[in-house]
């Protein structure tokens, strides 16, 4: 009904577009996708950059608020006093539904949304208070929610009156800077559920355009006010913006919208407003919604490489690219960008090798097109280290592995086996490079000092090669590791610049050493006398090869007692020492190893969590999806043994399902592309049914004997996956 009614208003909307465009001619340039940087207002937390500029070759820093923006706020216009309460409004709604007379409700809606001043008069908690701080928007959120929840249940003429009122507000002549009442009105209008309907998109687009064109200081207020919106409403606004972008890209009915050439600003405006909500989401810990809720899967179907090249070539100039707003791009789409960028680099380097060979009048060799790694199983780590060090120039070529003395053509299986064996050996506790923490079930860098950190560089290069060659590794690093790996995301030109150093908190330490982090947390909340009861100084002790060594957390730290006043500083310095300073050389080598392979502007698009998924895969399992994509050799999917198998597996606990996946693929995680990317195969084993199942992890293959019944299959399968480690039973 709303759609039909709204279509009758198209002529009005078209006039509205013309009028708005005339008003916007003077500020047209402000609406191009230029960089938005949130200023650092006093008492407000720094915000992340809203728009990413590749040309800066590092994450955008936060500018300080210019002096002129710190001038006194313009006076707020006096508001008409509206006294209607939530209860009175709900009573009016009930009476209207019962009697069919909607006059009172119609008057309320048409008056409330007639202008920005009226919106404030209705929804401002106290019309006499300015509410000029970032901490309190002054909006009566409960009343706003009740009014919007009821709106879609009112007659069409009521809903039309709201849209007409919004048009009036957007057509208002602006003289001077926006007041906080204007910002409040924008914040309220963004939550209007009518904008989920495509027939209102013309109005919605102009609302978004005005919000996108606000000053940086105004954006700062909107970001902080938005983080106070309830999770449900916050997600509704985000979903509405994502849907707006999707339907503008791929409209179900193209005739509903103006031609794309006349509204090229629609998507950039929506992306900027979405960036404000992403910034608000990142200010809360834990965030209001998951970062994946900002993904727009529609973008998986556009020319991503064109977007990427536009971003590389034009940065944040007047040429829009979704890569300026990477939080919108899904991890699957980012993987496509990284893979294609990697392929192009591989082809470019291989072509250059070929040209060099021909220019020297030497016979071309196919092996020159690959990174050929030849290793002995008995000297796996040292041989791998030598090969990668010797072939630095070839690291961005396609990887091929050969085990000396073994016949075999690497079609992917040998490469995966090399990764599996090498990672298993390097991360073994006896090797001493990494410490395994049982409480958190993850590895962390050993702080032991040594003369050569080249093996840490090897591990970094291995991770880079895995991402580059689409191999999922069974590595358990904490999230903090990937945050450090992107600090900065592009290797600095100045080799004196520190790398791998990031802001760390007690939460980061909890993910690695929960027991120690708990102790430090107890210190922070201790109500007694810290200095007398703990008798600690700004000094820490570590054991290295049986020798206890001391380190000062600050100059003369051994002489500075920890007190109730300075304990926060002590904890922060302690955490920084453990996660940054004590392992700097180890992690720097690891950082340079990773970036020696993966150096790409595409890394600027990634969050630390997304790097982890690219390296290790996703922890979310969907065995039904695996069943649909499984291939069979010697079996048909309708065979009784196969039916028994899936009945058993789908009934497994999550722990057993992970063990099965680890048993058959070498990792209990799923590639970015989902279960289908595993290329999982079940082959018929012609051995006795007394035998346990066998797995070839290099090929993601399970060899399953034709067990006679479900009970026997379940028993043998559980024994196999629960007791096998790698390539043999313990």
TrEMBL record:
CDD domains listed in its UniProt record: HECTc (cd00078)
Cited InterPro entries: E3A/B/C-like, HECT_dom, Hect_E3_ubiquitin_ligase
Catalytic activity: S-ubiquitinyl-[E2 ubiquitin-conjugating enzyme]-L-cysteine + [acceptor protein]-L-lysine = [E2 ubiquitin-conjugating enzyme]-L-cysteine + N(6)-ubiquitinyl-[acceptor protein]-L-lysine
Matching Pfam families: HECT
Domain of life: Eukaryota
HECT domain location: 391-730
GO molecular function, one term: ligase activity
EC number annotated for this UniProt entry: 2.3.2.26
One BP term from GO: protein polyubiquitination
List of catalytic residues: 698 (glycyl thioester intermediate)
Keywords on record: Ligase, Phosphoprotein, Transferase, Ubl conjugation pathway
Pathway linked to the protein: Protein modification; protein ubiquitination
UniProt function note: E3 ubiquitin-protein ligase which accepts ubiquitin from an E2 ubiquitin-conjugating enzyme in the form of a thioester and then directly transfers the ubiquitin to targeted substrates.
Protein name per Swiss-Prot or TrEMBL: Probable E3 ubiquitin-protein ligase HECTD2
